[in-house]
Amino acid sequence: MSKEALLKLEDKELSFPIIEGTENEKAIDLRTLRAQTGYITFDEGFGNTGSCQSEITFINGEKGILRYRGYPIEQIAEKSTFIDSAHLIIYGELPTEEQRTRFLVDLIKTCNIDTRMVRQFEAFPPSAHPMSILTSMMGSLSSYYPELSTNDRVLDLENFDRSAASAISKVMTVAAMSHRIANGLPINYPKKDLTYAENFLHLMFSSPNDEYVAPKEVSEALDLILLLHADHEQNCSTSTVRMVGSSGANLFASITAGVCALWGPLHGGANMGVIKMLEAIHAEGDDGSRFIEEAKSGNSGKRLMGFGHRVYKNFDPRAKIIGQACERLLDALGTKDPCLDIARNLEQAALNDEYFIKRNLYPNVDFYSGIMMRAIGIPLDMFTVMFAIGRMPGWVANWHEVASQPKGKINRPRQVFQGPNERDLPADYNQR
Ligand code: CMC
C-alpha cells in the first residue's frame, strides 16, 4: 500500500507522507502543507486532527477500546488501583513493589499545603464554586512552590518526580479543604497508613472527635471512579494542558489550565449535569420519556447529559464498568436512589430510539458516576472536582510528554479570517 497521500491543488500535485501508529491508525502528515501551497487545513473542533504523537493512552472509539499504556481498562479496573494506574500512566509501567513504596512516600511527603495557602481559602466568598476555588488554588501552587515551577524546562524536568507527586497529592488535599472550609468545618490532613481514596474520604468526612472510617465498598468504589478517569487521550482538558505546556509553562500552570477546561458542562461538568437532569426529571414526575423527546427536539436546548462522545461511537467502556459498579455500590449500601431507576429508563429508551442510534449516542463515563458519588456522600458541586482529581495523572503524563520533547514546538493553530478587510479610521474620528 502506498505510504503517501496525493493532493491535487490548483495546478499542482503534491504528496504527503503517511504516519502510522502502533495500532495501525493512519494520519496524513501535513506539516509542510502551508509552506508548499499557502493553504492550511480547516477542522473546526479538531475532529480529524492529530495534534501530537503520544505513547500514553489508546482509544478506538468504533470498537469501544480504552487502554492505558497498552493495558485494557477492563483489566486495570478489575485488578489495579488508582495509584498504580497513575504510576503506569506517568512512568509507562506498573510499579514494582519498591517503586510503589517510593511513589506512596512521595505522595505522603507532598500532600500537605503551605499554611499561608490554607489561609487563602478563607478569602473566597461562601458561594464560591469548588471548581473556581480549585482553579485558583492549583494556580497558587506556583507561588508557594516556586522551586517546582521555574518555567526553566531543564529544572522543571529535574524536579518532575516531586512536582508530579505534589500535583496528585495536593489536588486531593485542596479539594477536601475547600469543602471543609466552605462548610465551617475543621480541616483534616492525610494519613500515611490510608490508601489514596481512603485518605480523601477521611479528609472530607472525619472530624477531630469522630474519625470517618470508610467502608471497604465505598473506598473501593471511589478508587474505581478515580481510576476510570485517570487518562483519556487528547480530550479538551488534556489538550489544554499540552497546549499550555508547549509554551514552556511549568506543570502547575499547565494543569491549572486543564482544570479550567474540565469545568465546562460538555466535558467534566457533565457529571453534575446528569444528576441535575435526573433530579429535575424526578421532580416533574417524568419517568424519562418526556425528557427524551425534549432532548431529541433540538429546540429545547436540552441534551441527554452523560450521553454521546466525540470519539466513542459504539460504547464507552468506562460507562459499562461504572454502570455495574454503581449497581453493586447501591446494593452494598442498601441505598435506594430513584435517580438510578430514571437513569436506567433513559438508557434503555435512548438505546432503542432512532435519534440516538443514528447519531451513535451511548452512555458515557458521566452517566452513572454521579449516582455513585452521591451514594458515597460527595456533594453535587464537587463532582467535577472529583473528575479533576482522577484526571490528574493523565494531565501530568501529557505535560511530561510535551516537556521532554527536545525539539517540541509551541502549539499555535492558524485560522481562516472572516472579518473585515483593511479599512481606514473615519476622517472625523479623533479620540485624543
Ligand atoms: N443529547 C441529545 N443529542 C445529542 C447529544 C446528547 N447528549 N449529544 C450529541 N447530540 C446530537 C447533536 O445535537 C447533534 O445532532 P445533529 O447532527 O442533528 O445536529 C449530533 O448528536 C452530534 O453532536 P455533536 O455535538 O456535534 O457531537 P460532538 O462529538 O461534538 O459532541 C459531546 C460530543 C460529548 C460534547 C456531546 O455528545 C454532548 O454534548 N453530550 C452531553 C454532554 C456530556 O455528557 N459530556 C461528557 C462527555 S464524556 C466525559 C468527558 O470526556 O468529558
From TrEMBL:
SUPFAM superfamilies: Citrate synthase. Keywords: Acyltransferase, Transferase, Tricarboxylic acid cycle. InterPro entries: Citrate_synth-like_lrg_a-sub (IPR016142), Citrate_synth-like_sm_a-sub (IPR016143), Citrate_synthase (IPR002020), Citrate_synthase_AS (IPR019810), Citrate_synthase_bac-typ (IPR024176), Citrate_synthase_sf (IPR036969), Citrate_synthase_typ-I (IPR010953). The active site is at H309, D366. Residues 410-432 are annotated as: Disordered. It catalyses: oxaloacetate + acetyl-CoA + H2O = citrate + CoA + H(+). This is Citrate synthase. The lineage of its organism: Bacteria, Pseudomonadati, Verrucomicrobiota, Opitutia, Puniceicoccales.
